[in-house]
Amino acid sequence: MALVTEATLNEAYDIVRASRDCVRTPLLRNVEKLGFLDCPDEVEVHLKLENMQVTGSFKSRGVVVQLAKAPSLVTSGKRSLVTISAGNYGKAFAHACYQRGLKGTVIMPLTAPESRERIIQSKGCDVIRTESSELMTKVKELIHEKDMTFLHPFDDLNLIAGYGSAGLEILEEVNPDIVLVCCGGGGLVSGISAAIKYKGFKDTKIYAVEPETANTMQRSLAQNSAATLQTAHSLAAGLAPPFAGNNTFQHVKSLTDGVLTVSDKEIAKATRVLYNKGLIVEPSGAAAFAALVTGKVPELKGTVVVLVTGGNASTEELSKVFNDYEC
Protein backbone atom coordinates (compact mmCIF):
# COMPACT_ATOMS: atom_id res chain seq x y z
CA MET A 1 0.00 0.00 0.00
CA ALA A 2 1.39 3.43 -1.02
CA LEU A 3 2.49 6.07 1.47
CA VAL A 4 2.14 9.79 0.96
CA THR A 5 5.02 11.27 -1.02
CA GLU A 6 7.14 14.33 -0.41
CA ALA A 7 5.49 15.96 -3.41
CA THR A 8 1.98 15.43 -2.03
CA LEU A 9 3.11 16.74 1.36
CA ASN A 10 4.47 19.92 -0.21
CA GLU A 11 1.32 20.41 -2.27
CA ALA A 12 -0.85 19.88 0.81
CA TYR A 13 1.25 22.39 2.75
CA ASP A 14 0.56 25.01 0.08
CA ILE A 15 -3.18 24.29 0.35
CA VAL A 16 -3.12 24.58 4.14
CA ARG A 17 -1.14 27.84 4.10
CA ALA A 18 -3.53 29.37 1.59
CA SER A 19 -6.69 28.29 3.42
CA ARG A 20 -8.73 30.63 5.59
CA ASP A 21 -9.69 27.56 7.63
CA CYS A 22 -6.16 27.01 8.98
CA VAL A 23 -3.50 28.99 10.80
CA ARG A 24 0.13 28.37 11.66
CA THR A 25 -0.04 27.31 15.30
CA PRO A 26 2.52 28.43 17.88
CA LEU A 27 5.35 26.31 19.22
CA LEU A 28 5.53 26.97 22.96
CA ARG A 29 9.20 26.55 23.65
CA ASN A 30 11.15 25.28 26.65
CA VAL A 31 8.16 24.45 28.83
CA GLU A 32 10.54 22.58 31.16
CA LYS A 33 11.73 26.05 32.24
CA LEU A 34 8.15 27.18 32.83
CA GLY A 35 7.35 24.51 35.39
CA PHE A 36 5.28 22.22 33.14
CA LEU A 37 7.44 19.20 34.05
CA ASP A 38 10.76 18.07 35.44
CA CYS A 39 13.26 16.55 33.03
CA PRO A 40 17.04 16.15 32.68
CA ASP A 41 19.06 19.33 32.16
CA GLU A 42 20.00 18.40 28.59
CA VAL A 43 16.35 17.99 27.51
CA GLU A 44 14.30 20.79 25.94
CA VAL A 45 10.55 20.35 25.57
CA HIS A 46 8.41 22.30 23.11
CA LEU A 47 4.62 22.08 22.73
CA LYS A 48 3.03 22.38 19.27
CA LEU A 49 -0.29 23.99 20.20
CA GLU A 50 -2.85 22.59 17.78
CA ASN A 51 -5.50 23.40 20.39
CA MET A 52 -5.13 26.93 19.00
CA GLN A 53 -5.92 25.83 15.43
CA VAL A 54 -9.11 26.96 13.69
CA THR A 55 -12.00 24.84 15.08
CA GLY A 56 -9.82 24.00 18.09
CA SER A 57 -7.86 21.04 16.73
CA PHE A 58 -5.45 19.90 14.03
CA LYS A 59 -8.31 18.37 12.02
CA SER A 60 -8.80 21.47 9.88
CA ARG A 61 -5.44 20.83 8.22
CA GLY A 62 -6.63 17.55 6.75
CA VAL A 63 -10.18 18.55 5.88
CA VAL A 64 -9.14 21.50 3.71
CA VAL A 65 -6.87 19.25 1.65
CA GLN A 66 -9.57 16.59 1.30
CA LEU A 67 -12.02 19.17 0.00
CA ALA A 68 -9.44 20.74 -2.30
CA LYS A 69 -8.99 17.30 -3.85
CA ALA A 70 -12.67 16.35 -3.86
CA PRO A 71 -14.48 15.67 -7.18
CA SER A 72 -16.44 18.46 -8.84
CA LEU A 73 -19.77 16.85 -7.97
CA VAL A 74 -18.88 17.49 -4.33
CA THR A 75 -17.32 20.94 -4.61
CA SER A 76 -20.26 22.13 -6.72
CA GLY A 77 -22.70 21.00 -4.04
CA LYS A 78 -24.43 18.45 -6.27
CA ARG A 79 -23.42 15.54 -4.04
CA SER A 80 -23.60 15.53 -0.24
CA LEU A 81 -20.80 14.44 2.05
CA VAL A 82 -20.79 12.01 4.96
CA THR A 83 -18.21 11.24 7.61
CA ILE A 84 -17.83 9.65 11.03
CA SER A 85 -16.51 11.46 14.09
CA ALA A 86 -16.62 11.64 17.87
CA GLY A 87 -16.25 15.39 17.70
CA ASN A 88 -13.15 17.22 16.45
CA TYR A 89 -13.05 15.95 12.88
CA GLY A 90 -16.80 16.45 12.70
CA LYS A 91 -16.43 20.04 13.87
CA ALA A 92 -13.73 20.77 11.28
CA PHE A 93 -15.76 19.00 8.59
CA ALA A 94 -18.92 20.96 9.47
CA HIS A 95 -17.04 24.26 9.56
CA ALA A 96 -15.49 23.61 6.15
CA CYS A 97 -18.85 22.57 4.68
CA TYR A 98 -20.48 25.72 6.05
CA GLN A 99 -17.74 27.94 4.61
CA ARG A 100 -18.22 26.36 1.18
CA GLY A 101 -22.01 26.01 1.19
CA LEU A 102 -21.83 22.20 1.09
CA LYS A 103 -24.24 19.72 2.64
CA GLY A 104 -22.84 17.17 5.06
CA THR A 105 -23.81 14.48 7.53
CA VAL A 106 -21.73 13.39 10.53
CA ILE A 107 -22.31 9.94 12.01
CA MET A 108 -21.33 10.03 15.67
CA PRO A 109 -20.90 7.27 18.24
CA LEU A 110 -23.38 7.25 21.11
CA THR A 111 -20.51 8.00 23.49
CA ALA A 112 -19.63 11.35 21.89
CA PRO A 113 -20.46 14.42 24.03
CA GLU A 114 -23.74 16.16 23.25
CA SER A 115 -21.90 19.48 23.14
CA ARG A 116 -20.00 18.27 20.06
CA GLU A 117 -23.24 17.30 18.36
CA ARG A 118 -24.71 20.76 18.95
CA ILE A 119 -21.61 22.45 17.51
CA ILE A 120 -21.77 20.33 14.36
CA GLN A 121 -25.49 20.98 13.92
CA SER A 122 -24.97 24.72 14.39
CA LYS A 123 -22.91 24.68 11.18
CA GLY A 124 -25.78 23.14 9.23
CA CYS A 125 -24.66 19.50 9.15
CA ASP A 126 -26.97 16.65 10.06
CA VAL A 127 -25.97 14.29 12.87
CA ILE A 128 -26.84 10.62 13.13
CA ARG A 129 -26.04 8.69 16.32
CA THR A 130 -25.19 4.99 16.36
CA GLU A 131 -23.10 2.39 18.18
CA SER A 132 -19.36 2.64 17.54
CA SER A 133 -19.39 -0.80 15.97
CA GLU A 134 -22.03 0.35 13.44
CA LEU A 135 -20.42 3.57 12.23
CA MET A 136 -19.11 2.24 8.93
CA THR A 137 -22.27 0.23 8.33
CA LYS A 138 -24.25 3.47 8.47
CA VAL A 139 -21.78 5.16 6.12
CA LYS A 140 -22.19 2.39 3.56
CA GLU A 141 -25.95 2.64 3.88
CA LEU A 142 -25.95 6.38 3.11
CA ILE A 143 -23.54 5.95 0.21
CA HIS A 144 -25.83 3.29 -1.26
CA GLU A 145 -29.17 4.95 -0.58
CA LYS A 146 -28.32 8.65 -1.03
CA ASP A 147 -25.24 8.59 -3.26
CA MET A 148 -23.15 10.47 -0.70
CA THR A 149 -19.37 10.84 -0.84
CA PHE A 150 -17.47 9.62 2.20
CA LEU A 151 -14.61 11.65 3.67
CA HIS A 152 -12.62 9.35 5.92
CA PRO A 153 -11.68 11.00 9.24
CA PHE A 154 -8.22 9.43 9.45
CA ASP A 155 -7.43 6.81 6.78
CA ASP A 156 -7.12 9.03 3.72
CA LEU A 157 -3.91 9.98 1.93
CA ASN A 158 -5.00 13.58 1.23
CA LEU A 159 -5.92 13.98 4.88
CA ILE A 160 -2.59 12.51 6.02
CA ALA A 161 -0.73 14.88 3.70
CA GLY A 162 -2.64 17.81 5.17
CA TYR A 163 -1.72 16.76 8.68
CA GLY A 164 1.90 16.64 7.57
CA SER A 165 1.80 20.45 7.41
CA ALA A 166 2.10 20.51 11.22
CA GLY A 167 5.31 18.52 10.94
CA LEU A 168 6.71 20.88 8.31
CA GLU A 169 5.96 23.85 10.56
CA ILE A 170 7.84 22.17 13.41
CA LEU A 171 10.89 21.63 11.20
CA GLU A 172 10.93 25.32 10.27
CA GLU A 173 11.53 26.14 13.95
CA VAL A 174 13.50 23.28 15.55
CA ASN A 175 15.40 20.10 14.75
CA PRO A 176 13.63 17.52 16.93
CA ASP A 177 15.25 14.45 18.44
CA ILE A 178 11.92 13.06 19.67
CA VAL A 179 8.33 13.79 18.58
CA LEU A 180 5.30 12.58 20.51
CA VAL A 181 1.92 12.49 18.77
CA CYS A 182 -1.53 11.56 20.10
CA CYS A 183 -2.96 8.65 18.11
CA GLY A 184 -6.56 7.68 17.52
CA GLY A 185 -6.95 6.50 13.96
CA GLY A 186 -3.35 7.48 13.26
CA GLY A 187 -3.76 10.16 10.61
CA LEU A 188 -1.82 12.86 12.44
CA VAL A 189 1.15 10.71 13.40
CA SER A 190 1.22 9.36 9.84
CA GLY A 191 1.45 12.83 8.33
CA ILE A 192 3.94 14.19 10.83
CA SER A 193 6.22 11.16 10.60
CA ALA A 194 6.19 11.35 6.80
CA ALA A 195 7.03 15.06 6.84
CA ILE A 196 9.89 14.63 9.30
CA LYS A 197 11.43 11.53 7.74
CA TYR A 198 11.11 12.76 4.15
CA LYS A 199 12.86 16.02 5.08
CA GLY A 200 15.93 14.06 6.09
CA PHE A 201 15.49 13.67 9.84
CA LYS A 202 16.06 9.92 9.76
CA ASP A 203 17.30 9.74 13.35
CA THR A 204 14.35 11.56 14.90
CA LYS A 205 12.35 9.21 17.11
CA ILE A 206 8.60 9.49 16.53
CA TYR A 207 6.12 7.83 18.85
CA ALA A 208 2.35 7.44 18.57
CA VAL A 209 0.59 7.68 21.94
CA GLU A 210 -2.67 5.81 22.55
CA PRO A 211 -4.96 5.16 25.52
CA GLU A 212 -4.32 1.77 27.11
CA THR A 213 -7.98 0.85 26.57
CA ALA A 214 -8.03 1.92 22.92
CA ASN A 215 -4.68 0.67 21.64
CA THR A 216 -5.73 -0.31 18.14
CA MET A 217 -2.48 0.87 16.54
CA GLN A 218 -0.34 -0.98 19.07
CA ARG A 219 -2.38 -4.12 18.36
CA SER A 220 -1.99 -3.49 14.63
CA LEU A 221 1.79 -3.48 14.91
CA ALA A 222 1.69 -6.66 17.00
CA GLN A 223 -0.39 -8.55 14.43
CA ASN A 224 1.14 -6.80 11.38
CA SER A 225 -2.22 -5.65 10.00
CA ALA A 226 -4.81 -3.01 10.82
CA ALA A 227 -6.61 -4.14 13.97
CA THR A 228 -10.21 -3.84 15.09
CA LEU A 229 -11.14 -3.30 18.75
CA GLN A 230 -14.89 -2.99 19.21
CA THR A 231 -14.44 -2.49 22.96
CA ALA A 232 -12.20 0.55 22.49
CA HIS A 233 -13.07 3.24 25.03
CA SER A 234 -11.31 6.02 26.88
CA LEU A 235 -11.69 9.29 28.70
CA ALA A 236 -9.95 10.54 25.54
CA ALA A 237 -12.94 9.72 23.33
CA GLY A 238 -11.29 11.16 20.23
CA LEU A 239 -8.52 8.58 20.55
CA ALA A 240 -10.84 5.58 20.71
CA PRO A 241 -12.01 4.59 17.23
CA PRO A 242 -12.96 0.90 16.98
CA PHE A 243 -10.41 0.20 14.25
CA ALA A 244 -7.09 1.34 12.85
CA GLY A 245 -6.81 2.40 9.23
CA ASN A 246 -4.96 0.41 6.61
CA ASN A 247 -3.17 3.50 5.29
CA THR A 248 -2.32 4.83 8.72
CA PHE A 249 -1.08 1.42 9.88
CA GLN A 250 1.36 1.29 6.96
CA HIS A 251 2.68 4.76 7.78
CA VAL A 252 3.07 4.02 11.48
CA LYS A 253 4.77 0.71 10.71
CA SER A 254 7.16 2.23 8.18
CA LEU A 255 7.90 5.66 9.59
CA THR A 256 7.53 5.69 13.38
CA ASP A 257 9.40 4.14 16.27
CA GLY A 258 6.38 2.50 17.86
CA VAL A 259 3.42 3.13 20.13
CA LEU A 260 3.35 4.24 23.76
CA THR A 261 0.21 3.83 25.87
CA VAL A 262 -1.16 5.85 28.78
CA SER A 263 -4.01 5.26 31.22
CA ASP A 264 -7.07 7.49 31.54
CA LYS A 265 -5.78 8.58 34.96
CA GLU A 266 -2.47 9.63 33.42
CA ILE A 267 -4.29 11.51 30.65
CA ALA A 268 -6.45 13.32 33.21
CA LYS A 269 -3.41 14.34 35.26
CA ALA A 270 -1.61 15.64 32.17
CA THR A 271 -4.71 17.61 31.16
CA ARG A 272 -4.71 19.13 34.65
CA VAL A 273 -1.03 20.13 34.42
CA LEU A 274 -1.68 21.93 31.14
CA TYR A 275 -4.81 23.56 32.56
CA ASN A 276 -2.91 24.81 35.61
CA LYS A 277 -0.44 26.43 33.22
CA GLY A 278 -3.19 28.26 31.37
CA LEU A 279 -3.82 25.89 28.44
CA ILE A 280 -7.32 24.62 27.71
CA VAL A 281 -6.69 21.13 26.36
CA GLU A 282 -9.18 18.30 26.04
CA PRO A 283 -8.09 14.87 27.31
CA SER A 284 -7.61 13.56 23.77
CA GLY A 285 -5.20 16.42 23.13
CA ALA A 286 -3.11 15.72 26.23
CA ALA A 287 -2.22 12.04 25.70
CA ALA A 288 1.19 12.68 24.15
CA PHE A 289 2.10 15.03 26.98
CA ALA A 290 0.94 12.35 29.42
CA ALA A 291 3.46 9.89 27.98
CA LEU A 292 6.23 12.41 28.59
CA VAL A 293 5.34 13.44 32.15
CA THR A 294 4.84 9.82 33.25
CA GLY A 295 8.30 8.80 32.07
CA LYS A 296 7.21 6.47 29.27
CA VAL A 297 9.44 7.87 26.54
CA PRO A 298 12.47 5.64 25.87
CA GLU A 299 15.92 7.27 26.00
CA LEU A 300 14.67 10.80 26.65
CA LYS A 301 17.20 13.27 25.28
CA GLY A 302 17.73 16.43 23.26
CA THR A 303 14.90 18.41 21.71
CA VAL A 304 11.44 16.95 22.33
CA VAL A 305 8.32 18.18 20.55
CA VAL A 306 4.91 17.21 21.92
CA LEU A 307 1.77 17.64 19.85
CA VAL A 308 -1.06 19.15 21.89
CA THR A 309 -3.80 18.23 19.50
CA GLY A 310 -7.08 19.76 20.64
CA GLY A 311 -8.78 22.17 23.00
CA ASN A 312 -12.47 21.52 22.47
CA ALA A 313 -13.52 21.14 26.09
CA SER A 314 -15.48 23.49 28.29
CA THR A 315 -14.33 24.42 31.78
CA GLU A 316 -17.33 22.48 33.09
CA GLU A 317 -16.26 19.34 31.23
CA LEU A 318 -12.70 19.67 32.45
CA SER A 319 -13.83 20.28 36.02
CA LYS A 320 -15.77 17.00 35.91
CA VAL A 321 -12.70 15.17 34.60
CA PHE A 322 -10.53 16.59 37.38
CA ASN A 323 -13.11 15.66 40.00
CA ASP A 324 -13.69 12.17 38.62
CA TYR A 325 -9.98 11.39 38.49
CA GLU A 326 -9.10 13.32 41.65
CA CYS A 327 -6.45 15.46 40.06
From TrEMBL:
<dbReference type="GO" id="GO:0030170">
    <property type="term" value="F:pyridoxal phosphate binding"/>
</dbReference>
<dbReference type="InterPro" id="IPR000634">
    <property type="entry name" value="Ser/Thr_deHydtase_PyrdxlP-BS"/>
</dbReference>
<dbReference type="InterPro" id="IPR001926">
    <property type="entry name" value="TrpB-like_PALP"/>
</dbReference>
<feature type="domain" description="Tryptophan synthase beta chain-like PALP">
    <location>
        <begin position="34"/>
        <end position="310"/>
    </location>
</feature>
<dbReference type="InterPro" id="IPR036052">
    <property type="entry name" value="TrpB-like_PALP_sf"/>
</dbReference>
<dbReference type="Pfam" id="PF00291">
    <property type="entry name" value="PALP"/>
</dbReference>
<dbReference type="GO" id="GO:0004794">
    <property type="term" value="F:threonine deaminase activity"/>
</dbReference>
<protein>
    <recommendedName>
        <fullName>L-serine ammonia-lyase</fullName>
        <ecNumber>4.3.1.17</ecNumber>
    </recommendedName>
</protein>
<keyword id="KW-0663">Pyridoxal phosphate</keyword>
<dbReference type="GO" id="GO:0003941">
    <property type="term" value="F:L-serine ammonia-lyase activity"/>
</dbReference>
<dbReference type="GO" id="GO:0006565">
    <property type="term" value="P:L-serine catabolic process"/>
</dbReference>
<dbReference type="InterPro" id="IPR050147">
    <property type="entry name" value="Ser/Thr_Dehydratase"/>
</dbReference>
<keyword id="KW-0456">Lyase</keyword>
